[in-house]
Amino acid sequence: MNAMTMMTTNNLNSKPKFFGRRKGRVIHKAKSFLLESFLPRILVDTTPKNNIADCFGEPKQKYCLEIGFGDGDHLAALAKREHNTGFIGVEVYRNGVAQLLSLLTGIKDGNASDLAQEIGLTEGRVDNVRVFDDDVRLLFVALPDASFDKIYLLFPDPWPKSRHAERRFINADNLREIARLLKRGGVFQVATDHPIYKRWTLEQLRTNPDFKWTAKGSDDWRNPPADWAETKYQRKALREGRRPVFFEFERL
Ligand SMILES: C[S@@+](CC[C@H](N)C(=O)[O-])C[C@H]1O[C@@H](n2cnc3c(N)ncnc32)[C@H](O)[C@@H]1O
Description:
By secondary structure, the protein is an alpha/beta fold. The protein contains ten helices and seven strands. The protein has a domain at 50-97 and 128-251: Rossmann fold, CATH 3.40.50. Bound molecules: S-adenosylmethionine. The site of S-adenosylmethionine (SAM) has 27 residues, from helix 6 and helix 10. Residues 1, 3-6, 20, 67-70, 90-93, 96, 135-137, 154-157, 169, 231-234 line the site of S-adenosylmethionine (SAM).
């Protein structure tokens, strides 16, 4: 998987262009089964919502959005710890969505007996995760202002060539939506290991009047926040000798 992508336009009349991969290797029996049988139970649709709580069975104390959750490690770990937070995870990549469902239910490929059992969440979980399995920009319009306490964008594809800069997820249109969706005082959390994207993120956010970079010193962006859970792309970066950064921007 190598694509954190974006659409070239936020024009709502045409489906925005997505540059990443929607599918990878064949999804085997158990995960296909989860996509067919379990995903519909936790899907969010694009019907406009009056209140973010409408996405969940009951109101939650806090709400978080993770954009491009990949294999879902971070989302699944936080949701397991924070029972009173409602999480919306968004991912286009079908194999990633299937992997998140596997983490939530404990059902894995290759275990045929899993398919016979009733699907439920693993022990210690509550029903606090919802999924949108398409481009997040299609969901933005359905979500009310000031919905989220925190929005995560973790290891987006850097699109390092300057001729591809317009594909980077962090851009003026998407930042406008992220600012609209965050509560005042809410946090936009960005992690990246790519030098070009590190610079790009700071350039875009530090000149944006809706956000303030909260770091007081280098420890604040060199180390992950206390509630962090490692992601697949973070592990890959560390294996390959790249040092990730963890930027937090407060919604003003
Ligand atoms: C480089 S991967 C990082 C995955 C994960 N966050 C991690 O750290 O392991 C970027 C992911 O973002 C997803 N993505 C890119 N653009 C997206 C969009 N507009 N809406 C939803 N997901 C998107 C891609 O499908 C891909 O899985």
